[in-house]
Design goal:
By secondary structure, the chain is an alpha/beta fold. The chain has 2 domains: 226 residues, Rossmann fold, CATH 3.40.50; 78 residues, no CATH class. It is built from 12 helices and 9 strands. A 9-stranded mixed sheet has the order 1-9-8-7-6-4-5-3-2, with helices on both faces. Helix 1 runs antiparallel to helix 2, helix 2 crosses helix 8 and helix 5 packs across helix 6.
Length: 323
């Protein structure tokens, strides 16, 4: 693995899935074989079911497709993730759809919010907790709606942004945010809508959530008319437009310095997304990695050090910034 640092747009920046398908998820170890078998069954059954249902009712077929699209797989926390979460102070954050599970480490210091991606949970970013604490920050992580220990069965990108706003109201203000995949996209929406953070780190951020509806449809061989009806239902549910959900449309009027880590072999978020974000976000810096993929990037020591250093450079109060 190696790093190629790539800067653009701001010469003084020297400090340095999204709406993914419910069935496109990573498994490991003992669960891999069972997950693959279940996935094959699903991929055979769902296209037949949706096509048959569409002959009776297009809207009924689209409603089922939308439900599948909005249903994340709840991944179990590893023992190591549980150990880190057990050292944090549990917090319940009220929202209109139920209380979100959250954890806080440290008090009275500038806070950094950690936001997991689609199908993830707060434990996925726990490798960042100790380095951030050592740098003089307090840290907050949470399970988004329908993820981890939080309530609900269905969610989508706007729900991530709503969760971030709820966390800010309950545990903020936040100095910075570190978000992975859809968590990064949700943070971008929140920043666009006025969330005041000084710095942002995005890991494998998707630029265009509409692309995941197309991937979802191709993966399950969903008929085009069902896919299009499903997309209309999604937009109606959240009273939005696809162009308003694109991360490239979230670049704020007063830009927040942004650091992006993206692996050259990320098979879930294409490399063209990073280039689109770079062009749209005026204070953006991109670090390319190789061999980390979409998930190992969350555990890589060099990525973690770079992210913490970038966040610390935005405040004069952190020990790392003073050093």
């Amino acid at each position: 693995m190696y790093f190629l640092q790539f800067r653009s747009n701001e010469a003084d920046l020297t400090d340095f899935p999204p709406l993914a398908p419910a069935f496109d998820r990573r498994r490991d170890g003992r669960r891999a074989g069972g997950a693959k078998r279940r996935s094959r069954v699903v991929r055979r059954a769902v296209p037949v079911l949706l096509a048959g249902l569409a002959k009776i009712s297009l809207e009924a077929s689209a409603a089922l497709a939308e439900r599948l699209f909005r249903t994340p797989a709840r991944q179990r926390r590893t023992p190591a993730e549980d150990r880190v979460l057990s050292t944090g102070r549990p917090v319940l954050v009220p929202t209109r759809r139920g209380p979100l599970a959250a954890w806080r480490w440290g008090e009275g210091a500038p806070a950094v919010l950690l936001v997991h991606g689609w199908g993830g949970h707060a434990g996925r970013l726990t490798k960042f907790v100790a380095p951030l604490l050592d740098a003089g920050f307090s840290v907050v992580a949470f399970d988004s709606l329908a993820h981890g220990s939080s309530p609900g069965r269905q969610a989508s990108l706007p729900d991530f942004a709503d969760g971030i706003r709820a966390l800010d109201a309950r545990e903020g203000p936040f100095e910075a945010v570190i978000g992975h995949s859809m968590g990064a996209a949700g943070a971008g929406l929140a920043i666009r809508d006025g969330w005041a953070v000084k710095r942002a780190v995005f890991l494998s951020p998707p630029a265009d959530p509409e692309e995941f509806t197309r991937r979802f449809a191709r993966s399950l061989r969903i008929p085009p008319d069902v896919r299009d009806a499903m997309k209309r239902r999604l937009l109606a549910r959240y009273s939005t437009r696809w162009r308003d959900l694109k991360l490239i449309a979230c670049a704020p009027a007063v830009p927040v310095p942004l650091l992006i880590f993206h692996d050259e072999r990320d098979h879930k978020v294409p490399l063209r997304d990073r280039d689109a974000i770079l062009l749209a976000w005026r204070q953006a810096t991109i670090v390319h990695t190789r061999g980390l993929g979409h998930h190992r990037i969350l555990r890589d020591p060099a990525v973690i050090r770079g992210a913490v250093a970038f966040v610390a450079a935005g405040t004069g109060t952190s020990r790392l910034a003073r050093a």
